[in-house]
């Protein structure tokens, strides 16, 4: 019974983390589709607070676990720069200060809870995460099926707003699909996983890829492709061709790989319109990427028309142009920066330099450098447990987004970074790595002991 309650607590911690990092899709479903609180920002804040409360351990304040201290310190330093600039160097966003203080309070609370929960959540993070992302994906599908204004070819998202002027945010659903994709692959590659679980996990991989395509999020699709290529490049050379052929052609592997595709083909036979949807979105994605590339190269399309950047890509070009003018026009002003939220670039890394200056930008890039290094190290050597593998690949999924959308003050920007700083580049108890990798680092010191003990 004690073990049951312990595992239930670990699952509760994991659920809280996913609500904070990936709670927007499920929140939109409950608010807009189930009509619990249409267009309510208070509901979203309450749902986020619920996630933080679910992360509360029984040992709160009495016991803390060590994160990647330099990275977490750098992130808190950047948050300090944001607060300092909000009060002392703010000419255009004075009215945002009170609202932003609430956001920063959520970030600090999230960090506090992260260092209060044990690394042992690695045992439950995959199961809880797969179920959570599955619930969000099902919510999206149900919303699309019941939305009279959604038509084939639109980006998949839960729409809200007055009739005729409704809008949605497909990026949060693309992000949810990426999280589900990573966790499903981690589950499928677990050592000694049984056949049914592997089949379910691979089915979830296919489902999440379909959701990702339906969202038509170019940055998410690009980051997923680049992460997959990085994984293949790093890992394919570690395995001999003979071993690859043997593993792929074994009867069990063939059955496991074939069953999800057989089920998918069967679904297409029953519902032929599903294949039409996939081909339409595939052509849209390929055509949009291709035209953007042609536009950047100054070429014409195959029809002879001038290639045009889409709206989001054009905004990025304008942001880079504005930044180049700021650099060439008044380079010295970049040392202190132009002030808190001076200009919305929609490119978080550049906006940190423009608004927070060299010091704030340097602190943020210090954190990015170390997180990137630790993530690539996990990709190269293999993760020591589920949580390390998950956050390493999740960061690689986020890299493109850090250059293509959002602001460095957003919770959606800061919360994942805090998660990476908590679980990347730390020493894990070898017991958490048992059977996970060929040679778990048993020689490393254990830092999963509490930093502070009650006196």
Automatic annotation (TrEMBL):
Entry's transmembrane regions: 39-57, 69-89, 101-118, 125-145, 172-188, 195-214, 220-236, 248-270, 349-369, 390-409
Domain of life per record: Bacteria
Keyword Ribosomal protein found: no
Keywords: Membrane, Transmembrane, Transmembrane helix
Protein name stated in the entry: Uncharacterized protein
Source organism (scientific name): Fibrella rubiginis
């Amino acid at each position: 019974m004690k073990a049951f309650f312990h595992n239930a607590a670990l699952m509760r911690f994991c659920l809280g983390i996913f609500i904070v990092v990936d709670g927007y899709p499920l929140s939109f479903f409950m608010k807009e589709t189930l009509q619990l609180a249409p267009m309510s920002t208070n509901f979203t804040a309450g749902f986020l607070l619920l996630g933080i409360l679910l992360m509360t351990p029984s040992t709160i304040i009495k016991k803390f676990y060590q994160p990647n201290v330099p990275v977490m310190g750098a992130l808190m330093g950047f948050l300090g720069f944001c607060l300092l600039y909000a009060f002392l160097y703010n000419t255009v966003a004075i009215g945002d200060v009170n609202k932003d203080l609430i956001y920063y309070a959520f970030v600090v609370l999230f960090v506090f809870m992260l260092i209060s929960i044990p690394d042992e959540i690695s045992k439950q993070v995959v199961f809880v995460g797969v179920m959570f992302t599955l619930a969000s994906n099902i919510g999206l599908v149900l919303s699309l099926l019941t939305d009279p204004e959604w038509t084939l070819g639109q980006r998949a998202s839960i729409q809200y707003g007055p009739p005729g002027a409704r809008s949605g945010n497909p990026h949060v659903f693309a992000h949810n699909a990426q999280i589900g994709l990573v966790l499903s692959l981690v589950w499928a590659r677990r050592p000694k996983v049984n056949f049914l679980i592997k089949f379910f996990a691979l089915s979830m991989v296919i489902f999440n890829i379909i959701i990702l395509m339906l969202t038509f999020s170019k940055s998410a699709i690009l980051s997923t492709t680049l992460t997959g290529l990085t994984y293949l490049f790093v890992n394919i050379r570690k395995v001999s061709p003979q071993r690859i052929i043997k593993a792929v052609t074994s009867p069990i592997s063939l059955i496991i790989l074939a069953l999800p595709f057989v089920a998918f083909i069967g679904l297409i036979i029953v519902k032929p319109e599903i294949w039409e949807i996939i081909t339409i979105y595939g052509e849209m994605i390929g055509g949009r990427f291709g035209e953007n590339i042609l536009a950047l190269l100054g070429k014409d399309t195959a029809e002879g028309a001038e290639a045009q950047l889409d709206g989001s890509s054009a905004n990025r070009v304008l942001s880079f142009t504005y930044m180049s003018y700021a650099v060439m026009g008044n380079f010295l002003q970049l040392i202190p920066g132009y002030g808190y939220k001076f200009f919305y670039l929609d490119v978080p890394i550049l906006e940190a330099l423009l608004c927070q200056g060299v010091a704030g930008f340097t602190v943020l890039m210090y954190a990015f450098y170390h997180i990137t290094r630790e993530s690539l190290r996990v990709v190269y050597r293999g993760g020591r447990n589920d949580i390390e593998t998950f956050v390493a690949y999740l960061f690689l999924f986020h890299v493109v987004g850090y250059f293509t959308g959002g602001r460095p003050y957003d919770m959606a920007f800061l919360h994942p970074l805090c998660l990476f700083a908590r679980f990347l580049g730390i020493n894990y108890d070898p017991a958490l790595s048992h059977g996970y990798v060929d040679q778990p680092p048993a020689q490393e010191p254990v830092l999963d002991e509490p930093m502070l003990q009650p006196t």
